[in-house]
Amino acid sequence: MRDIRTAPFVEEMRKTTVNMYRLGWDERNGGNISYMLNEYEVAEYLDLQKVIRRIPIGFEAKPLIGKIIIVTGTGKYFKNVADDPETNLGIIRIAADGCTAELLWGYKDGGKFTSELPAHLMSHMARLSVNPENRVVMHCHPTYTLAMNYVHELDEKKFTHTLWEMCTECIVVFPDGVGVLPWMLCGTNSIGEATAEKMKEFRLVVWGMHGIYGAGKDMDETFGLIETVEKAAQIYMLTAHLPRINTIKDTEMVELAEFFGVDYRKDFLNL
Ligand code: 2HA
Ligand code: ZN
Fold first, then answer.
1. Ligand 1 pocket residues where CB is under 6 Å
2. Is 0.85 topped by the overall pTM?
3. What is the C-alpha separation between 121 and 166, in angstroms, rounded?
4. Residue of 28, 114, 141, 190 to mutate, ligand 1, most atoms within 8 A of C-beta
């Protein structure tokens, strides 16, 4: 059995959490990541028969039975993941009842997965139903995106449109737009259900005045989606109070989308 601390998926979790922490997106225990792994990847490092603990997940995730997921721990700081992955991360498998997580590795101090597990697992289910390649769900509190939540209408068409206007690449990177939820109590099944409903349509969902969720086929795609929204929000926040002289026009966005061959939300433009 190989040393799990050297596994590429643990390495990816370490690098990504460090990166997000340094960008200021994950203060204190803010943010969480869940990354679905292939059984064969994990079997090189862990005895899959050996369950350390069984932890109830608080809802039924039948479509995910047997799936193995590496998830950040509740109350844990992204800042600390790289130095001590075994305490700050865990690898769980959804048990045959669909309601229990079997801990295969991690949460060494007796901890458990993020309080946002419902939003993560429900989002995985929603994304997998539209894209079987989806493996990553990421949540964080990016500064400018959050700032924008306080000064911009929380309407998904208007919010997406403003972001698309802020960087030429935006409509190409997230042509499906950004879903927006109003402020809701976090850590609950209800916010999980609302997020998952949006995730059937969008790979990005803003949690009003809280943060953002991203989903993608790998860590780079998911990180890149959030990073691009955050960049656009930064440009918006740097310019929103200044007279606007130039803008990317809707007709130019169509040009971009057509040139790069992306299927974009036409109803989010004003043509
Ligand atoms: O787990 O970000 O939404 C910390 C959070 C809650
Ligand atoms: Zn949060």
1. 29-32, 114-116, 139, 186
2. yes
3. 32
4. 114
